[in-house]
Amino acid sequence: MASVQRQLVVYDFDWSMADQDTDRWVFEVNAPEIRRWIEDNEGKIQFTDMIAQALRDAHAHGVTREQLENALRTMPFHPAMVRAITNLEAAGKTTFFCLSNANSIYIDTILKEKNLLPMFTEIVTNPATWDPSGLLVLRRRVDPSGPQHQCTVGCSPNMCKGEELEAFYARHTPTYDRVVYVGDGSNDFCPALRLRSQDMLLCRTFGGLHKRIAREGGLKCEVIYWTGAWEVEEVFKTRLTS
To answer: Where's the active site on this chain (predicted)?
Structure first.
């Protein structure tokens, strides 16, 4: 393709940028009985609402803000992913955007710990705030009492990642010469469908995304499969710096 002057890298967070799932990890560390409750009820309750309830239950059982923050800071996050982002940002011409179904507190805490937060132009996720008692109050990005998104691809009610990607484009004109999307989950399929022939999808080989690609197809972009963060670093170094 022609020389790339404006490049966007879009990251999912859990199991894509990070090497764990934030929503489950904090309970595995601090409240395994609540982690079991999540496992037993997944699919019965909207997931963001379920995690909000799990946070309330953990707070009621004495799990503190400090315990949650410590779990986040020690969650697996591969050094190669830190290098990949840091080195590509230093090379110039790349904008970084995080698009995740986790929440703002989880992501901000971890990115601050890894010195990556300033590199992200935007983080679009579910909003969360600490209340004075130390409870983490989590809400859906798309308020259930307001207008709902119009996704027909299968995104969760809390957010359509495809619509959020298009909205990001609208806020950051002109058009990017190349978009690179790093994801793993089935909810990354909707934004992947919106990528163009000059764009690139870095799809992790576990999670629901690769299964939907195999089953449904329909992508216009190049797809590169990866398992370890070192492979993302390799792609960034060899394919995205020119």
So the answer is: 12 (nucleophile), 14 (proton donor)
